[in-house]
Amino acid sequence: MEVRVLGCSGGIGGLDVRTTSLAIDDDILIDCGTGAGVLDVPALVAIDHVFLTHAHLDHIAYLPFIIDTVGDYRDRPLTVHAAPETLRIIRSHIFNWLIWPDFSAIPDRAHPLMRFNELRVGESIDIGGRRITALPALHAVPAVGYQIRSERGASLVFSGDTTLCEPQIAAINAIDELRVLIVETAFPNMQHDLALAARHLCPQMLFSLLDRLIVSPDVFITHLKPAQAAEITEEIATYAGRLRPQILKNDKVFRL
């Protein structure tokens, strides 16, 4: 199993700065931010499943464009998996015939181009030997993280957007063969209060999370706000704990 980073920034800016999307092999996306725009049309047509962590625009922005682009090429619907609250939000505010057509009813509800599947915390879906499990997260809107487990038993965890979340930390610590942890850190320490209000992490909160871990994955940091990326990177470099977090980069590939 391969996990490729299509986008991992907290903002946009040319080809190098694009928002969150991870590709699992050639048929699954985790989130659908502007990073998904690097895929050409044949690659987009091959996507059968999209798992959303939450409904914020930087994580769903390209989903409407993808389904509009690929629908007529496909012989089965694209399945969008997310927590019930997230699906309610995107159906009410995106696929509502005002912002974008409701592709779950096109050409008709019996033969849609897109379908929605509710996935609650703790629930898993097996797709071709890969298991995707929704993990707890704590954000400004209902949110989840994901554990992605390969057929060989190795796992990658993506925190999604979250502040310190004790249930998520407990879930991470319970995973055998956790090889990779991708965790957000959106703000520098000087914006600690904003991080708390927005339910994101800053480096000192990240350090608290890492200190609670008993597992030993490779740790990669995502979702840095572009204007503060250098400052956040410098602060993360001061961590003196057991794990050694690295800044995630576009096009990084994890093989599990």
From TrEMBL:
It is an enzyme of class 3 (hydrolase). Keywords: Hydrolase. One of its GO terms (biological process) is cAMP catabolic process. InterPro entries: Metallo-B-lactamas, Pdiesterase2, RibonucZ/Hydroxyglut_hydro. Its EC number is 3.1.4.17. SMART domains: Lactamase_B. The keyword ATP-binding does not apply. Residues 18-190 form the Metallo-beta-lactamase domain. GO terms for molecular function: 3',5'-cyclic-AMP phosphodiesterase activity; 3',5'-cyclic-GMP phosphodiesterase activity. Pfam families: Lactamase_B_2. PANTHER family: 3',5'-CYCLIC-NUCLEOTIDE PHOSPHODIESTERASE 1. This is 3',5'-cyclic-nucleotide phosphodiesterase.
